[in-house]
Write a structure and sequence with these properties.
With about 150 residues, the chain is an alpha+beta fold. It has four helices and six strands. Helices cover about 30% and strands about 25% of the residues. The strands form two sheets. A four-stranded antiparallel beta sheet has the order 2-5-1-6. A two-stranded antiparallel ribbon has the order 3-4. A hairpin with a 5-residue loop joins strand 3 and strand 4. The chain starts with a strand and ends in a 6-residue tail after the last helix. About 10% of the residues are buried.
Amino acid sequence: MRFLLIVKATPESERGEMPVDVERLMADMGRFNEEMIAAGVLVDGAGLQPSAAGTRVRFEGLGKPVVTQGPFPNTAELASGYWILECPDAEDAVGWAKRVPFSSGEVELRPLHDPAAFEGLVSDEEIQKVHDHRAEQLRKAPKPGA
């Protein structure tokens, strides 16, 4: 199962401020990422720039996009980073979430839809394409010592 582990934004991250203990945090995050890579759990992950650097595209009907430049209000609803984890189950994913080396802040764990959820709704060929795409992503994911 795949999970999105979302790092929730803070007023400080939205201002582009680095934590006071950024050197320690980066070292801890590096070790945490290496542990996930070695365990075969980490598919991808990155920090996000503040929403001021972002763009939203809202759709008001087919072919009617509305583009809005950041920054965006309501920091509590924004993300400042993410990981994509491949775990055997939700319990394992929660275990990894609990190990994030933060002294404050919040993360949110959300399961991604499994292609099987679309059986009977789309063709078997389309479902197979999603499985193949995910297998290719995992094949290209970081490997220990790489």
